[in-house]
Amino acid sequence: MLFSSNPRGRNEEGWNSGRYGVYHDLESWRRYASAAGFVELYRPDGVPRERQPWLASVWRTAWRPEIHRFRRDLPSDQASPFASRREREMTEGIGRRSPAPRREDYAVVDGSQGPRRDFRITVGLREGWDAEGRVYDVSEAVRTARAWMSRRVGASLPALSGMFTRAEVTYAWPRPDGSVGSDREPVAVFTGEAVHAYLGHLPDHEIEAMLNELAVELGAALGQERLYVAFCDRTWILDAGEREG
């Protein structure tokens, strides 16, 4: 079981009165807890928003093999009443798992060898140019990319796949008075490869077009004007430019 009581906020993190905290809204905290394998049991209600500076909620763990492995030997009438049908199905399937592969079982997949084509998209997580701008969690970038991938696959189009990491870009610049300024900014970095087995039939310009399309989706979702893209031995910048209104 998990009881959590977190400071409520706008999905930001930083110092407040000498204490460093991460401030979530309810929707984001639910996403994080669910992604970590928890199922929500209770959330207090009936209290006005202005009297809820903290997010209090009670959770339980979802199915985990290392915890629930013993269930496969229990009669069905002794199984936990909290187990969902999906949990019971997964538990019952433990005994039917295939044996682990042996070293000699591995072989190169036909058609998987080809030129390496790496890519990277770097997008800021702080909205706008203001130091007080909203700082997004990297999960927002993940959600945006997954939605983009799903739309393309649903339309029978190829899609990129890769991994997100949160990083900090550090930089410096000369000031007019001759001094030097420096700062850092949180960023989300999406990296991967156009795997030959799945995307080897696509020419470079089609991979670049997908990278630009995904980068624009990320930039719009995270409030970024400038996006940095790299593919193979090339790099380029996408900029939203001046906009009216």
Write the layout of secondary structure elements.
Elements: E1 2-7, E2 12-16, E3 19-23, H1 26-35, E4 38-42, E5 54-61, H2 65-68, H3 85-92, E6 118-124, H4 138-154, E7 163-174, E8 180-193, H5 196-199, H6 204-222, E9 226-231, E10 234-239
Antiparallel strand pairs: 1-5, 2-3, 4-5, 6-8, 6-9, 7-8, 9-10
Overview of this protein structure:
By secondary structure, the protein is α+β, with helices and mostly antiparallel strands. The chain has three domains: 2-61, no CATH class; 65-104, no CATH class; 118-239, Alpha-Beta Plaits, CATH 3.30.70. Helices cover 25% and strands 30% of the residues. It has helices at 26-35, 65-68, 85-92, 138-154, 196-199, 204-222, and strands at residues 2-7, 12-16, 19-23, 38-42, 54-61, 118-124, 163-174, 180-193, 226-231, 234-239. The strands form three sheets. The protein has a five-stranded antiparallel sheet, with helices on one face. A three-stranded antiparallel sheet has the order 1-5-4, covered by helices on one side. A hairpin with a 2-residue loop joins strand 9 (226-231) and strand 10 (234-239). The longest helix is centred in the C-terminal third of the chain and has 19 residues, at 204-222. The N and C termini lie far apart (50 Å). Mean pLDDT is 82; it is low at 66-83.
What's the CATH first level of the largest domain?
Alpha Beta
> How far apart are the first and last residues' alpha carbons, in Å?
50 Å
CATH architecture annotation name of the largest domain? 2-Layer Sandwich
Tally the beta strands: 10
As a percent range, the share of strand residues is 25-35%
The domain tally reads 3
Large-scale geometry: globular
Averaged pLDDT: 82
Rg to the nearest angstrom?
24 Å
The level of helicity is: 25-40%
CATH topology of the largest domain: Alpha-Beta Plaits
The topology string of helices and strands comes to EEEHEEHHEHEEHHEE
Largest sheet strand order: 7-8-6-9-10
User: What are the low-pLDDT stretches, counting only 5+ consecutive residues below 50?
Assistant: 66-83
Total helix count?
A: 6
Protein structure class? alpha+beta
Largest sheet: 5 strands, antiparallel
